[in-house]
Write a structure and sequence with these properties.
464 residues, mainly alpha, Hydantoin permease, two-stranded antiparallel ribbon, 75% helix, Na/ntran_symport, SNS_sf
């Protein structure tokens, strides 16, 4: 165990690292898909309102718990109240479950980047290209392993030389790339075989302008809870990451200012992802191109890039570089949450904990990859979807454990330790706690109620 806990050198390093964790694959494909599905501007409105209330509450709570205890998620909750020690175990299980399949998907991103970088982007647009890749035996495993090793190399570098340094480099580049692609998407224009011309600006209108005529009470509730679910993907709460990162924050850092910056950066990138993807897909494929899940990124967008002609190959390379950066900053934070927990719980050195997590990731990641061929099966999940190994892991972590962690975190802070525990930590240097009323009401009443409904929906008790 390190004699003195490492910390981020400055608030900018912390903000970029936390934003890097939040800005991941969920922002790139899931936010645009939900925005397109859920009435565009109305989804964005709901998301922003929830980010400023629900998201803010959970984010500031977890970061403050981390800084107050100087512990990772496995041990931090017990520092607040010993009876909540099991909550730390569940919170640590979330990144343990997520890391292998996230790295498997990272391998898919690496495959598409290589394809476009080597001029094979047209082939990547073929109907069976994605399916043929994930169902093949060795290549997905090899690329997953490369991705895992790259992630581990950053984690082995530690808080300053690894996580903070990488975030300071990759996040500004990612932001510039996503802005460039977003602006380019608005300039697109295409006339299909039926003579119908579609433009990027028309796609922008679909993305931003809500259709209130199509809005019903049922669709409104669906949109609200889709936006709520997206927040878990977007701000990296309820998976121990922000507690681990919070434990590396210096006591003199203005937490409120940092949390606000993380909120702004993450929401802005999510909005820009929609600006980048929805107009592009609309121009070349119409509304039908907005397929759910990874299919948007690995099936629809390659077809869009191929339809652009020669410039599409360049855009495809830039896009998958951007996605690769977004993915790696997130997988680093997921792995770090596990490594930090092992260091704090068992007093291991970073290299020891890192090797254990690296081996686990390679083994479990291989099993995930084999889930599409040698270990393939189909299982109907409680929410009605049919999936295999990756889908089961995603369901258990995101739909079961994360709402449980978030709910009991609210109970711990809202009713047991009291909100003053967090407020005092945030304001220890004389800072103002903006949105104090919202925080108190949300942590005690609003967030627990929403989480109960979200959990009930996830396990199939009802659907909108």
């Amino acid at each position: 165990m390190e004699k003195k806990r490492n910390s981020f050198k400055g608030s900018i390093g912390f903000v970029l690292a936390a934003a890097g964790s939040a800005v991941g694959l969920g922002n790139i494909w899931r936010f645009p898909y939900l925005a397109a599905k859920d009435n565009g501007g109305f989804f964005i409105f709901c998301y922003i309102i929830l980010a400023l209330t629900f998201g803010f509450t959970l984010l500031v709570t977890e970061i403050a718990i981390g800084r107050k205890t100087k512990q990772s998620p496995l041990t931090a909750y017990a520092q607040i109240n010993k009876k909540f020690r099991p909550l730390g175990t569940i919170a640590t299980l979330v990144p343990i479950i997520i890391l292998p399949y996230y790295c498997a998907i990272g391998g898919w991103v690496l495959k598409y980047f290589i394809s476009f970088a080597t001029g094979d982007g047209v082939a990547a647009a073929a109907d069976n290209y994605f399916t043929d890749h994930i169902t093949s035996l060795w290549l997905p495993i090899i690329l997953m392993a490369v991705y895992v090793v790259a992630t581990a190399a950053i984690v082995f570098g530690g808080v300053n030389k690894g996580i903070e340094k990488t975030s300071r480099i990759l996040m500004p580049i990612l932001f510039i790339l996503i802005c460039c692609i977003g602006v380019f998407a608005l300039t697109l224009k295409y006339t299909d075989a039926d003579g119908v011309t579609r433009t990027g600006l028309q796609g922008l209108k679909i993305y931003l302008v809500p259709d209130f005529k199509a809005l019903t009470l049922k669709s409104a509730f669906t949109t609200i809870f889709d936006a709520l679910g997206q927040l878990f993907y977007s701000i990296s709460v309820a998976m121990g990451i922000m507690i681990a990162y919070g434990s590396y924050v210096n006591d003199d850092t203005n937490l409120m200012k940092s949390v606000n910056q993380i909120e702004i950066f993450d929401t802005l990138v999510a909005l820009l992802a929609g600006l980048m993807i929805i107009p592009s897909v609309f121009v070349f494929m119409g509304k039908d191109g907005m397929t759910a899940g990874p299919g948007l990124m690995f099936i629809s967008l390659p077809k869009v890039f191929a339809a652009m002609g020669k410039i599409g190959i360049v855009v495809g390379v830039v896009f998958f570089v951007m996605v690769l950066f977004a993915a790696i900053t997130s997988s680093v934070s997921i792995m770090e949450a596990i490594v930090a927990s092992l260091m704090d719980r068992f007093h291991w050195k970073r290299n020891t904990a890192g090797v254990v997590v690296l081996i686990y990731s390679l083994v479990a990641g291989t099993i995930v990859c084999l889930g599409y061929n040698k270990l393939y099966f189909e299982l109907t999940l409680p929410n009605g979807t049919v999936g295999q190994i990756l889908d089961v892991m995603d369901y258990v972590s995101n739909n079961i454990f994360m709402p449980i962690v978030a709910f009991f975190t609210c109970i711990l802070i809202g009713w047991v330790a009291k909100p003053k525990t967090i407020i005092d930590e945030v304001t220890k240097n004389g800072e103002k706690f903006n949105r104090k009323f919202i925080y108190n009401v949300t942590i005690k009443f609003v967030a627990p109620a929403l989480l109960v409904v979200l959990f009930a929906q996830a396990i199939g008790l009802f659907s909108f």
